[in-house]
Amino acid sequence: MGNTSKTKRARQFKRSRGLQQLEDRRLMIASGIPTIEFCDEVQIYGPVQVGQFSPADTSVQDTQTAGDVIARIVDGQNTSDFPAVGMVGDLSGGYGSGTLISPIHVLTAGHCAVDGTGNAMADTAGTFEVNGRVYQTSRVFLHPNYDDWTLANDIAIFQLSEPVVGVSPEMISRLVPVVGQDLTIVGFGGGGTGATGHTGDYGTKRVGETVVERVTATEIQWTFDPGESNTAPGDSGGPGFITVDGQRLLAGVTSYGTSYSAAFGDQSGDIRVDAFAEWIDSIVGDAGNDGGGDDVGDDGGGVKDDHGDDIATATELQLDEAGAAAVDAVLEEMGDRDMFTFEVDGLSNVAIALKSPEAEVDTYLRLYDANGNLIAENDDFGGSYNSNLDLELQAGTYAFSAAGYADGETGNYTATVKVEEVTSGQDDDTIIVDLNAKGRGRVEASLNADQLTYLSFEAINSGRTTVRTVALTEGVDTVMRVLDSSGNVVATNDDYGRGLNSRVNFTAIAGEVYTVEIAEYSGAEGDFRLVVNNRSS
């Protein structure tokens, strides 16, 4: 069983060699975690990482010296049970495991949900494959105290864009694990034997049994011994179940192991679900409630919320005669994301800003279209902790969320919107890509800081069509979105293959005009080439 995370720095590595690289960047440089002496039934709660601990020592110590632990069932067996356990990943495919805990929430490992900076991946970048279908995320919750180096607080939740049907969610455990308990581990990682290690055959659901040997404030730990099973690369984020009074409970989330081979002697660790139950509840809520904190007045944990947290409950901003609107608001608790909507009547230059007095909040801004697709995002702007987006938008309804950096901030801020319609005296900056008789065309263009570049082409064939970017300036990292003439998104992509270029494939319709939106991932400037190949069926 094994897993990895999708990060900007590891993306090419993972995608070029597939699932076998899931955890390489963490554990291969570690000879093992230090010997840990833990009380058998330590009852300490909270999102903290405990180092050396014994009944006579109740202090909490940092574990930065623990090194690089590898996240990743060996000596297990294939299974079609556990229908709520699926494969998590990004838009390029699956690479880890996760468990459905509500119709729209998936519990997984934090390192399965981060980008290259160790922050949560884009809200719509995650996927969950279960019951023969792939669901896309509408929001990604990474624990605010997650540490991408030590894997402390290695837990995350994928919120799906629609409910999973035909699958019953698993119940999380609120009980402190006990040394000696049987732990059932499930995941899509590599199989194999304890004698030889995992075989790298990822993507098959397997199940095995081990025994809880150590319990820390936030982890369940064991050493892989003969007669037991073990997690392996690809299992990260998967569940560890205990059974209490006949009830199966989700007690652990696969986090790491100390040996990439996952053979006998490997020291493995799961994140304790009970230790993070309060955080999980703040997002998922009670049974029968999606718990996303979307109802204005309650942010999922009983905290009064001044603005809704999704498009359905967003605060609508009314623009004045000058096309401007402003609102003072509060992030009441960590994880709060206030959502606002506004209308654009025609092609316009739009500026959106989040400002916090005296840098009380390190803000994070995300812009979405009416269907919840992420258009652009910004963390810091102009050397400050404020956020800003300045871009050109077509007519339509748009939404933006105001949040804290890594969803770990609270405090006051002001959100402003300024819309200036492009007048007839201004040029439509859309770049036309002319296709030849074979349906091929290319054009070179530039990316301006924090702005979208628009291109368009008219399909001459009905059939498979490829649109791709080629960076002409070193370091340019393109993000692409293709829309049809009705404004429907037909394809999106960030990185494709080993590099930072973008590429999409879709079935075009002859005579349809497609708009291609290109952004730079980090908001930088640079040049690129757009290549279109519109094939006939």
Which features characterize this protein?
single chain, Jelly Rolls, 3 domains, eight-stranded antiparallel sheet, six-stranded antiparallel β-barrel, 3 helices, 34 strands
Short description:
The chain is mainly beta. The chain has helices at residues 11-17, 24-27, 277-284, and strands spanning 77-78, 85-90, 93-102, 105-108, 126-130, 133-142, 156-160, 182-187, 192-193, 197-198, 206-211, 214-215, 219-223, 239-244, 247-257, 267-272, 315-316, 324-331, 338-344, 348-355, 363-369, 374-378, 387-393, 396-404, 411-421, 431-432, 440-447, 453-458, 463-471, 478-483, 489-493, 503-508, 513-520, 526-534. It is globular and about 75 Å long.
Topology:
Layout: H1 11-17, H2 24-27, E1 77-78, E2 85-90, E3 93-102, E4 105-108, E5 126-130, E6 133-142, E7 156-160, E8 182-187, E9 192-193, E10 197-198, E11 206-211, E12 214-215, E13 219-223, E14 239-244, E15 247-257, E16 267-272, H3 277-284, E17 315-316, E18 324-331, E19 338-344, E20 348-355, E21 363-369, E22 374-378, E23 387-393, E24 396-404, E25 411-421, E26 431-432, E27 440-447, E28 453-458, E29 463-471, E30 478-483, E31 489-493, E32 503-508, E33 513-520, E34 526-534
Parallel strand pairs: 17-19, 26-28
Antiparallel strand pairs: 1-11, 2-3, 2-5, 3-4, 4-7, 5-6, 6-7, 8-11, 8-14, 9-10, 12-13, 13-16, 14-15, 15-16, 18-25, 19-24, 20-23, 20-25, 21-22, 21-24, 27-34, 28-33, 29-32, 29-34, 30-31, 30-33
